[in-house]
């Protein structure tokens, strides 16, 4: 009888230790200063439940969930406005413990934020998706059609539209993170002109690297106040760990000194010799970012 009781006690100790270890690991993950995500459209899973599964397989902490295609539609081709479909995404996120870093409006890579007539329903649909999914950041790239280096005459209308968009996302306490082709100095001036705490920067390593700018210096110029998220990858050439243009330990040191915390999102940095190998490319880049930023 005594030996049976001792066996039960031993089993309870093992179970308790296992539970506490899992809880500690989960708590540690939730408290990470830096979390690593991947863009769902770049892993070929745009607004698909499989994006969470693939993100879990490559050990990413989250995904940047796209609003869907745009084309000539008045707004995004999105499932997120459907309560039933939206719940599927939320359930899968919870099941696999893969978060949503931000809601992306990637349609504006090729579409003009300055000239499209139906900006209002697009922004409103995105903000509603943010609210319903409890996501605090939206990603808005000012792509080729609204490139302020090439089209400086568009600045007044872009500023006006972003002021309005800031008011919309401010209603839910969220942020729209814009990506521009500007230097950090010029982007900071743009953000100060917009003058909204709800419009911030989505900093992209590739923009700085492609233009020969030092990434840590750019981050310092932009400052913690203006930085909502980071697209932590370069133009496709090699994996991040092999990219001599990206000094990742120095970048981490800079962000640590800035006391910034948030999402590092892998967009590209694919090995051109195997550019279509999604798991290899994104798995390697996620692993490297975690090695530098989470160890």
Automatic annotation (TrEMBL):
Signal peptide (UniProt feature, chain positions): 1-25
Protein name: Endonuclease
Matching InterPro entries: Xyl_isomerase-like_sf, Xyl_isomerase-like_TIM-brl
UniProt GO molecular function: endonuclease activity
Species whose genome carries this gene: Flavobacterium hibernum
Key words, A-Z: Endonuclease, Hydrolase, Nuclease, Signal
Residues that span the membrane, as ranges: none
Gene3D superfamilies registered for this protein in UniProt: Divalent-metal-dependent TIM barrel enzymes
Xylose isomerase-like TIM barrel domain ranges (all copies): 52-291
């Amino acid at each position: 009888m005594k030996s049976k009781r001792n066996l039960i006690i031993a089993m309870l100790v093992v179970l308790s230790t296992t539970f506490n270890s899992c809880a500690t690991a989960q708590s540690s993950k939730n408290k990470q200063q830096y979390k690593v995500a991947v863009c769902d459209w770049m892993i070929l899973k745009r607004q698909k439940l499989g994006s969470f599964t693939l993100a879990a397989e490559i050990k990413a902490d989250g995904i940047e969930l796209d609003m869907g295609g745009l084309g000539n539609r008045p707004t995004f081709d999105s499932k997120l406005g459907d309560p039933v479909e939206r719940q599927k995404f939320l359930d899968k996120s919870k099941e696999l413990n893969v978060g949503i870093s931000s809601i992306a409006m990637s349609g504006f890579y090729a579409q003009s934020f300055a000239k499209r007539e139906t900006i209002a329903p697009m922004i409103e649909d995105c903000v509603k998706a943010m609210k319903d999914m409890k996501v605090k950041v939206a990603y808005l790239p000012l792509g080729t059609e609204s490139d302020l280096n090439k089209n400086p005459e568009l600045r007044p209308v872009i500023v006006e539209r972003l002021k309005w968009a800031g008011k919309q996302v401010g209603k839910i306490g969220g942020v729209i993170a814009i990506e521009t082709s500007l230097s950090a100095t010029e982007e900071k001036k743009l953000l100060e002109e917009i003058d909204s705490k709800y419009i911030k920067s989505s900093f992209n390593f590739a923009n700085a690297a492609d233009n020969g700018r030092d990434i840590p210096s750019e981050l310092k110029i932009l400052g913690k106040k203006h930085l909502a998220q980071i697209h932590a990858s370069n133009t496709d050439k090699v994996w991040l760990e092999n990219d001599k243009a990206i000094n990742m330990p120095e970048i981490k040191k800079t962000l640590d000194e800035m006391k910034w915390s948030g999402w590092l999102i892998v967009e590209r940095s694919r090995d051109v010799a195997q550019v279509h190998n999604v798991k290899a490319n994104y798995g390697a880049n996620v692993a490297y970012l975690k090695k530098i930023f989470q160890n």
